[in-house]
């Protein structure tokens, strides 16, 4: 079975602009399926990201301070 025989025959009859319109309709159809978070879920995710970023900043800051102190001891 080749690729041409697997295509939907109705799609083959569509012209260039018809395929673009079909694509846009499919996009909106998929967007209707998207489940958006509630306000409380969004706030919880926001706080989780902020906390994670703060923890990573502290960790990188401590590593930076340790390596700078180590370079001062080595190179004086």
Features:
76 residues; mainly alpha; 2 domains; elongated; protein transmembrane transporter activity; Protein translocase subunit SecE; membrane
Helix and strand layout, with pairings?
Elements (H helix, E strand, L loop, with lengths): L2 H4 L2 H5 L2 H17 L6 H37 L1
The radius of gyration over CA amounts to 27 Å
Query: Which term fits the overall shape?
Result: elongated
The proportion of residues forming helix, as a percent range, comes to: over 70%
How would you name the oligomeric state of the polypeptide chains in this document? single chain
Structural class, please?
Answer: mainly alpha
Question: What summary fits the major beta sheet?
Answer: none
Secondary structure tally, helices: 4
Question: How many DSSP-defined strands?
Answer: 0
InterPro entries: SecE_bac, SecE_sf, Translocase_SecE/Sec61-g
Main location: membrane
Transmembrane segments: 42-63
GO cellular component, one term: plasma membrane
Structure description:
The chain is an all-alpha fold. The protein folds into 2 domains: 1-34; 38-76. It contains 4 helices and no strands. It has helices at residues 3-6, 9-13, 16-32, 39-75. The protein is elongated, with a radius of gyration of 27 Å. The protein starts with a helix and ends with a helix.
